[in-house]
Design brief:
The complex is a heterodimer of chains A (488) and B (136). Chain A is α+β, with helices and mostly antiparallel strands. Chain A contains 16 helices and 20 strands. Chain A has helices at 42-47, 50-57, 117-120, 124-134, 149-158, 171-175, 193-199, 224-230, 246-259, 263-266, 284-319, 400-404, 419-425, 431-437, 447-452, 461-471; strands at residues 7-8, 11-15, 18-21, 32-36, 66-74, 81-87, 94-95, 107-111, 212-221, 237-243, 279-280, 330-335, 337-346, 349-358, 361-362, 381-384, 392-397, 408-409, 441-443, 474-487. In chain A, a hairpin with a 2-residue loop joins strand 2 and strand 3 (18-21). In chain A, helix 4 (124-134) crosses helix 11 and helix 5 crosses helix 11 (284-319). Chain B has three helices and eight strands, in the order E-E-H-E-H-E-E-H-E-E-E. The chains are: A alpha+beta (488), B alpha+beta (136). The A-B interface holds A 48, 74-78, 81, 102-103, 138-140, 194, 197-198, 207-210, 247, 250-251, 253-254, 257, 261, 274-275, 415, 418-421, 445-446, 448, 488 and B 4, 6-11, 35, 37, 59, 66, 70, 72-74, 76, 100, 102, 106-110, 112-117, 133, 135-136.
């Protein structure tokens, strides 16, 4: 008797919340596509055309395993958002700037504290206003800390460890940052003058779009042991920061797309989408992009570090105690737009592969050598921001990520409404007041920022997190609820 | 004439014009109007000239909008009223430029980049059409 296989459009169910897009779907695919999603999400995902992009990524030379998509998948440029792709340099594998995105090393970091909700609630308005005044947000705002060009190049080469001498970072902060905030092989001299000019005054600025800084409270702990190792408990105040490499990184990506315009013909690569431009990792073009991309990634870690330093100073001023005495330690910092050389098991071999994570987060399991010692037992912390009215999640990496997704998991809720639809839906409403009724004090530069980023504009982050938990890519540790938000 | 169209997390600009020159001028105006609520010149406006060249018209449109974005972001200059001349995929444009005064020009959106995604410049029966998606 034939085995019944559930299908949904071109997708075949091959496991719990796991869907295969067979390579026969589109001639030219070198591997299958593999999508992790709840069955209820599939209709929306297929309508969005993002699955077409999963198929297109499967064309990339040297791709290993499968072209992967996380449950927060949505339509992007070339790559879908929520896409993961590993390529093997030894098999002519390519590096693709579209697999990293314009905001190189966009990511999130979480700070804990010894403060309880009751300590902060009476000061929350003052705290949010002070954060909003101190931290440059939105378009055209320059950073408070100035780094001249030689120092900027050091930041790009060394990452946030170069900020220790300026009292903007501690050795512990560095130890609790992915890759210790420094990708080897960064070549600031490959970063164009235009990119440097865009980045000169932007270290320590939040930016616009979906970037934010949130004061949150740990609402529910699901894994007490893991939470304890991270220093998290119910009722505790945390700060979640979401930003990236600012104009410097955007320009590095743009420069690379221009440089690689003719690369597919030059290297004999056939691609279904120009935005997938790529070059072999071992080529001059590939190395040039990698050198600049790593420099931009290191700059992004410096940006989030300086943002955190400013947040600590604001807490000190408002609460009248040193940040060290408030226990405001960095839990971890993770990138979700990046490409890194990592060792992975592919079929029966250990291989060094270039893992592209475009809107996906690294999620190494317990025991991984790249984790700081305290996290060996529990796995790597992962932070999944939801929308500003509902929740964000703390997860830890699980062994399933190493067998199923090249050590990766999801990165966010994903948008449910376009920006124009969100603006329309906000007509006649005061989003700021609505948030206040939900217990969230929010400040943004203009009304549009809040309207476009309103809670209803996002999908429910709980569903996304539930999928990666059930698939075994990462495990739920704690759910955090925002109480204060600043945005661009 | 321009309008904005939806693209999941981002936004697109669709421009229609009788000539290619107007098409490029309108695209520039659409970009500035997306980034600022009031991109109008004030008393300190001066003239600014741009000269660019590319391999084809789509690349040229990408270069043009990227140049405006770069000038706005790095020099904090608001730009407008573009008069564009095109010849063999090369562009000369003039317009006013004025230092950004946030309280007057009202910045509304930060644009990360002008993408190549679905970038198009086409000639139709009644003139020209361009579409470009901005990453925000």
């Amino acid at each position: 008797m034939p085995v019944q296989v559930n299908t949904f459009g071109p997708l075949e169910e091959v496991g719990v919340c796991t869907w295969r897009l067979p390579r026969t779907y589109k001639p030219g695919m070198r591997v299958d596509g593999m999508l992790f999603a709840h069955p209820d999400q599939l209709e929306a995902i297929l309508a969005d055309r993002a699955v077409e992009q999963v198929a297109n990524v499967a064309f990339l030379p040297g791709i290993q395993g499968a072209s992967l998509a996380m449950p927060d998948i949505h339509w992007g440029y070339g790559f879908c958002i929520g896409g993961v792709c590993a390529t093997d340099p030894a098999e002519g594998g390519v590096i693709s700037p579209g697999g990293v995105g314009y905001d190189i090393n966009c990511g999130v970091r979480l700070l804990r504290s010894d403060l309880h909700l009751n300590d902060v609630q009476p000061h929350i308005k003052e705290l949010v206003n002070a954060l909003f005044r101190q931290i440059p947000t939105g378009p055209g705002r320059e950073g408070r800390y100035h780094f001249d060009q030689p120092m900027l190049k050091r930041l790009m080469r060394e990452g946030p460890r170069a900020l220790i001498e300026r009292d903007l970072a501690t050795p512990r902060d560095i130890a609790f940052t992915e890759a210790e905030g420094r990708l080897a092989g960064a070549e600031p001299d490959r970063v164009s003058d235009r990119a440097i000019t865009r980045g000169l005054n932007q270290c320590g600025t939040l930016g616009g779009g979906n970037h934010f800084l949130e004061v949150q409270v740990v609402e529910r702990v699901e894994d007490r042991a893991a939470a304890a190792v991270m220093g998290l408990s119910e009722g505790m105040i945390c700060v979640l920061i979401h930003s990236g490499s600012r104009g410097l990184g955007y320009q590095v990506c743009q420069d690379a797309l221009k440089m690689l315009r003719d690369a597919p013909q030059r290297y004999g690569i056939s691609l279904p989408d120009r935005q997938l431009a790529c070059a072999p990792i071992d080529s001059e073009h590939g190395q040039s992009y990698l050198g600049a991309m790593r420099a931009a990634a290191n700059f992004a870690w410096c940006n989030r570090q300086v943002l955190m330093a400013q947040a600590r100073h604001v807490f000190e001023r408002v609460l009248g105690r040193r940040w060290q005495d408030l226990g405001m330690e960095l839990v971890y910092d993770v990138a979700h737009n990046i490409a890194k050389l990592e060792e992975h098991q592919v079929d029966s071999a250990r291989k060094q592969v270039m893992v592209h994570r475009k809107g996906a987060t690294r999620a190494f399991p317990p025991g991984h050598a790249e984790l700081p010692a305290p996290y060996w037992q529990i796995g790597q912390p992962v932070f999944i921001p939801g929308d500003m009215g509902r929740a964000s999640w703390v997860l830890v990496g699980q062994p399933g990520s190493m067998t199923k997704s090249f050590g990766s998991t999801c990165h966010g809720a994903g948008r449910a409404m376009s920006r124009t639809a969100a603006i329309k839906a906000s007509q006649g409403r005061r989003i700021e007041n609505e948030l206040l009724e939900r217990g969230v004090v929010a400040r943004a530069r203009g009304w549009r920022g809040l309207a476009e980023e309103q809670p209803d504009a996002y999908k429910d982050v709980d569903i996304v997190v539930d999928v990666v938990h059930r698939v075994g890519l990462s495990k739920k540790v704690a759910r955090l609820r925002p109480i204060g938000v600043i945005k661009g | 004439m321009y309008e904005y169209f939806e693209h999941t997390a981002d936004v697109g600009i669709r421009v229609r014009a009788a000539s290619l020159e107007e098409l490029f001028a309108e695209a520039g105006a659409a970009l500035m109007a997306f980034m600022l609520d009031a991109p109008a010149p004030g008393p300190t406006a001066t003239q600014r000239t741009f000269e660019l060249a590319a391999d084809d018209l789509e690349e040229l449109l990408h270069e043009w909008l990227s140049e405006l974005l770069y000038t706005y972001e790095t020099e904090h200059l608001v730009l407008g009223d573009f008069r564009v001349k095109l010849r063999d995929n090369a562009l000369t444009a003039e317009g006013w430029a004025e230092p950004l005064v946030p309280k007057r020009h009202l910045p509304s959106h930060e644009v990360k980049a002008v993408t190549y995604h679905a970038l198009t410049v086409q000639q139709g029966d009644n003139g020209y059409l361009a579409e470009v998606v901005l990453d925000i």
